[in-house]
Predict the structure.
Amino acid sequence: MTARRLRASLRGWGGVGAMALACATALILALMLPDSARGNGDTGTGGPGLARGTQARAAGCTDPQNRSLTPSSADGTTIEAIKNRKDRRLIVGVDQNSYHWGYRDPNDPAAGSDLEGFDIDLVHAIAKAILGDANAVQFRAIPTSQRIPAIQGGKVDMVVRTMSITCDRLRQVAFSAPYFKTGQQVLAPVKSGITGYDKSLAGKTICSAAKSTAYERLAADRDAGKLAPGAAVAPPVPNQLDCLVRLQLGEADAVVTDGALAASQAAQDPTVELKGGTFTTEYYGVAMKQGSDDLVRRVNRVLADYRKDGWQQSYDKWLAPTLGPDSPSGNLPVAQYRQPA
């Protein structure tokens, strides 16, 4: 990589050094998870409460974003256990290095070490509804690949971390109704000649995060011979932001990730940009342990209220500047529910 390119890539949100430090910190925290949550990322079938979860059956699943439970304000055993803790806080897995989603801004002294962003705003709204205090939260930085193990292992009450609702994941965790609509998109250097998820990726190395829907799509297309000739799917990295760092260092030619995340990464580094449109449709949800139906329903109540007061303000503050006025992500998805079993 040329010195000019390297200097350009160091501009934006804190540069490669700050981003690499954030990624390393998240990885260290991930290593604190139990051995069963590390290994190869296999979540297994033995997580507490898995057998009794009403969302576990995803056979024949379609429209997974419409399979959550109806909203309720009633407390149940899961919420009572949270309220009865000595340290009366909600424990939430989040990202700490996704610009405008969950991050610490090193260029804003007023923010200090506090996490901020679109996902963080939602966490505070949930804490306020359940515990009466928006700041009654213990944040735990979770790499992309460790979101499900952290939930199943009881390390967190929920994960609010740009996590797409999929049929496969419904077999492993419970989800709220969707709170954001997005899709997979390509991020690449401005002058790369790449035009999107198409033949322009021929001979290119593509980066994605482990256990992400982006990697699953890339691997499936590669195995089915649908990728551009000679395109290589790089071994997945723990965090989405690791791909941006690899792109900046010339270790990858393109990144595939959620379009909303890609837009935020492009805002960090003016030498990269979105290429082409989204080529999937996905919905983010709050992920919780199977069987915690009272918590799922309470979060859905929060989301229903958040639609009226909070979601649009948070979107306009954090995401509208990077996604633009005509983005399909500009409205909270309409929730459709199923009845409790």
Notes: The first helix runs from residue 3 to 9. Residues 1-58 have pLDDT under 50 and may be disordered. The first strand starts at residue 68 and ends at 69.
